[in-house]
Amino acid sequence: MWFTILLSLFCVADGTARPHIVFILADDLGWNDVGFHGSDQIPTPNIDALAYAGLPLHNYYVSPICTPSRSALMTGKYPIHTGMQHGVIYGAEPRGLPLSEKILPQYLKDLGYKTHLIGKWHLGSYKKEYLPRNRGFDTHTGYITGKIDMYDHTNVERGSWGFDFKRNSDALVSDDLFGKYATDVFTDEAIKIISSHNNSTPLFLMVAHAAVHSGNPYEPIRAPDDVIDQFKTIENRQRQKFAGVLTKLDESVGRVVSALHEHGLLNHSVIVFSTDNGGPAAGFNDNAASNYPLRGVKNTLWEGGVRGAGLVFSPLIHKRSRAATQLMHISDWLPTLYSAAGGNLTALGSIDGVNQWDALSKDLDSERNAVLHNIDDVWGSAALTVWPWKLVQGTNYNGSWDSWYGPAGRRGHYDTDKVFGSRAGKAVAELGLMPNNNTVAFIRKSTTVTCSENTSAVRCKPLQSPCLFNVQLDPCERNNLADAEPAILQRLLKDLSDLNSTAVPPNNRPLDPHGDPKFWSRVYFNFGDFDTPRSR
Q1: Closest Cα to residue 310, out of 19, 20, 73, 67?
Q2: Which of 399, 153, 438 is nearest to 297 (CA)?
Q3: Is the pLDDT of residue 15 over 80?
Q4: 426 and 469 share one domain
Q5: Which of 87, 92, 282, 502 is the most exposed place for a label (fewest CB within 10 A)?
């Protein structure tokens, strides 16, 4: 009897061990900020190595901003179905991802996984029950709000300022980590967990980076000076500093992959690398990401806001080293990873995500043909793709960020030697899974988007009327086909209306004055568990 119970906990249906799952989530990384999408300005050899040895996800979509994307990842549901569709959660805001939602680490714990979160949470923190260790994670080292300074680990938001860096504590700041570069802290913690993990037990490790999100307004982009100095050829100073932040992120990926290999976990792991939303380009959010040649930025529903840089690597994938063109949404990770872990999908109930494991692994047709990018009735914006057609209705920021920004890189001087010589490249090569130069070149060409400016293209004015694009032929959203394809436009408008009829209201709440860190020793804190502030 006990053997049967243990087998069900640690093994998939055929008796093989459940795979280790490592999910690396970058914050605000743009489409054009990784080498495998055609950029050569900032080398990302470790990330690229995983893409070439695994599957770069060419038609992969995320939500346009942090909290909604993370909610979709965790619940397998569109944000309109959890009330998370409008904006982000602030540290003094009395709300969180609804407690009625069972989320990814809880499902994996049911299968016997040890679960660890490192880095950003951003799904609610005003009460203890919303925090990571009460939502399925065994441990958490990181922060609970939306951003931090990379060195002093403080967050300035909505007129508040406070520290936010914790190690398995709801209240106390980890003072011993003050002044240490956040990406290094997260990486060291990940390696510590990997090195001490009992390989006979399945591991779920989520590393949710602060990089490349902006920090505080007084110095929003921070990286070690010696790393930034490697990019003096980049003229834009903010992009120089961004390059330093991204380089440290890529270095972290390499160190984590190397540690997995060193400790015997890599050969039975599934590694996902993803951004949470598109990049804040051209000074948006005081940042310098790049989505070139895609249109728009973070928190817009253009491709530059929702088409995500992502990949999956695993020795368990049957057909590796190719561009995965399957249509996929971030909500698919819950059923996809749960399936890869041998879980019974009926346990997930009614969700929007679909299991893509076989489609990705065996290069089958995608399990979805449509993606809801978002419906935000507060902003008056919505977008829906029913492949290959995309409907855009309304826009954010009154259209101020609806343009194309870039390029950044793409001169053609791509150094594949750095990819093969990276930590991740070497680890994968030792497993015999690294493709040759010709395959690398072919994959990179297949995952690089190029668009020509069509001078006769019909402009889109989404504040005046809905726009329609064929994003398979026109991924840069330059030619509005709403007038040319009225039947398709009306069909997508009806689909969007049908989806909106299933939406729940946004659960945003006004900031609670008692949530200001000044009342809590300058620490972002689960203030809702206490009647009155503890100190001033």
Answers
A1: 73
A2: 399
A3: no
A4: no
A5: 502
pTM of the model: 0.97
Q: At 303, which helix (H) or strand (E)? A: helix 303-306
In this structure, are 108 and 149 located in the same domain? yes
Q: Which residue has the tokens 């992959």?
A: 257
Query: Is the distance from CB of 208 to CB of 120 less than 8 angstroms?
Result: yes
- Do 341 and 469 belong to one domain? no
For residue 7, is pLDDT > 60?
no
The Cα 348–Cα 76 span in angstroms is 9
Structural domains in the chain (count): 2
d(CA 178, CA 172): 13
Predicted local distance difference test score (pLDDT) of residue 531: 80
Rg (CA), the chain: 22
Residue 482 belongs to what domain range?
369-400+454-505
Q: Is the pLDDT of residue 9 over 80?
A: no
> By 3-state DSSP, what share of the chain in percent is helix, strand and coil, each rounded to 5?
35, 15, 50
On the CB side of 279, CA atoms within 13 Å amount to 29
The residues assigned a catalytic role are 66, 122
